[in-house]
Design goal:
7-stranded mixed β-sheet; 161 residues; alpha/beta; binds S-adenosylmethionine; single chain
Length: 161
């Protein structure tokens, strides 16, 4: 498979998972976008999430398209290992976390994912959903089938509790 095909399939899987998660949200709480990047998936969530749920966006630096820059009060800039524990300390209820943090550095990506699983298990409320471009591991996160059309191991879906 060409890299272009692989890229397109990853984005299709990402969109299917985001749309499925938005339509499956039954717990109250905020949404976390971990890896704001260009802001594409943030913009998608923002367009589809109803009911005034805040969307907190995290990245080490701001590189989003000008039309996709979150309001200052929901923008968390800095290293995730610092900003996410600081956010957790505020005990904001969270219903959905989307992690899109993968980079070309496979070792760093895997190390971050190993830290992130247990951290998200603390942050996301019972019944909440976690979507991730990387596999996560925490006893409280139960892996669930991704929506139809998402190939196995292309995107990872978990429900807490
Ligand atoms: C694949 S991009 C996100 C793309 C974005 N979701 C979009 O649709 O435009 C990954 C982002 O994660 C951020 N990131 C990766 N590791 C991070 C870390 N340890 N702390 C904070 N941000 C991190 C990078 O700076 C990068 O902007």
């Amino acid at each position: 498979m060409s890299r272009l095909d692989s890229f397109i399939r990853r984005l299709e899987a990402q969109r299917l998972c985001l749309d499925w998660a938005v339509s499956s949200l039954d717990a109250p709480g905020a949404v976390l976008e971990l890896g704001l990047g260009n802001g594409r998936t943030y913009d998608h969530l923002r367009e589809r999430i109803a009911g005034g749920r805040p969307i907190y966006a995290f990245d080490r630096h701001l590189a989003a398209h000008p039309a996709c820059v979150p309001p200052a009060e929901t923008l968390c800039l800095g290293e995730l290992r610092e900003t996410l524990p600081a956010f957790a300390a505020k005990r904001v209820p969270v219903a959905l976390a989307h992690a899109d943090l993968g980079s070309g550095d496979a070792a760093a990506t895997a190390a971050l994912a190993a830290w992130l699983g247990p951290m998200l298990a603390r942050v996301v409320g019972d019944g909440g959903l976690v979507l991730s471009d990387q596999p996560l591991d925490a006893p409280q996160l139960r892996r669930v089938e991704p929506p139809a059309g998402v190939p196995a191991d292309r995107y990872f879906v978990y429900r807490r509790g």
